[in-house]
Amino acid sequence: MAVAHRIYRSFPEQALLRRHPPPQTKLLKDLMEFCNQVGLDIDFSTAGTLHKSLNETFGADKYSEARKEVLTNMFSRPMQMALYFCTGVLKDETLFRHYALNVPFYTHFTSPIRRYADVLVHRLLSASLGASAPIKLEKNALQRQADHCNDRKMASKRVQELSADLFFAIFVRECGPLESEAMVMGVLNEAFDVLVLKFGVQKRIYCNALPLLGFHFQKVGRKPELTLMWEPEKPEQESVSQVITIFTLVEVVLKSEGIPLKYSALLKRPSSEK
User: What pTM was computed for the model?
Assistant: First the structure.
């Protein structure tokens, strides 16, 4: 933060900073209403109070970390991406703010060996201290550098995610099928997302891949629900219904698919015992 202040004071038209816009208002409002409906006491006033609420809300039982991860995932949806930018291009200082860190000025500085943005900041800092000549890039050229850094950072994040998914798919192929408890973290019209607790992976389960007589989606306030009607295993048995909503615990099976390096998650049939 000290570096961000220094280079901005020295080069108000050329400083390379990193901003983090506040959450999207509509999505955050919906999430606040959901938390109120399910009895979660979450303080949304700042990023700091939000983080504190997450750490204090769920207690210490064996599913507390899973519930925390599910809610953290839900909180990430209204959040916007942090971005590098040139201060000469963005005139309104209130837009410089970093929401997650709750500071007015911020930049990356500590890793010039792996981030080009840090190299630019080092050059600006050196010039501000009189150790080197000012950089010759104009503000629009610096903004193009910032845009490129943003693109590369997002691409790197996506490659990391795909790499992890690829290697886990190989693990499922070599060691599966794998069974685990899972916690529901999102409910859609015809599918739902789960956090597989034993392996820490997230996977979507589709209703049309299950032996169901039918399913019904509804919203109870802000709380989405899917009701599944399972086919009886024997003709003399009755259909079993299962309600899927956020934080529901289910049993899943991870199986390798016919497509190379792909795997799917299937929901295990609930017990018919009352």
Answer: 0.82
